[in-house]
Fold this sequence. Notes:
By secondary structure, the chain is mainly α. It is built from nine helices and three strands.
Amino acid sequence: FRVLDSIESTILGYAQGPNLMVVRDSYLDDPLSQGTLAHELTHIQDARQLKGGKLPSFMLEGRALTNGHSYRLSVGLEEDSYDAKMSNSAMGFTCEEADEILSEMSGIGWNNQAMGTFLVEYMRTKWNGAGISDIHPRLSRMIGIIACGLGFEAAFAKEFGTPFSTLLDAFKKFLDTNKAEARVQGMMWQAIAAQKQVADKDDDDDDKD
């Protein structure tokens, strides 16, 4: 673990391989940093467990961001504008964007992170009707299978008993049939999406007045 006064980047913290986490000193005073620490530790553990194997970046980020969010809430922190932005992305993604982002092994940027987080939450809460409540242990087992030499799609099929393409088709159908706040019911963004809905209604009422 390394704390630096400055990082030559706009990034506030990052994991580097299986052994090093770097974070900007001033950022540790920000409550959001507690989630970042859990997020980056997930990356480090995944890198150690993969042993050189490859997991798509959307899945890496999805695991890390959901863990970071859960940890922040577990220590009593409230959701903030970052969570609202993530919720808005989940409510606005299209099937075409899902096809594009979830076919990339090494995608980068906000949409890659948000789509991966949305997919992991979908798997946890909605996939096959009831979701998979222990999705993170299951994904960890899949990572162990990848470390033994299988590719991502083969490891996914071995752990979940169905091809990744089946998950992708189900996820796109979910996007197509559920819009806006209906998408995040039962997911980690449900509360913050409801707050936005109330705020939007209040704004509409003010406009009518």
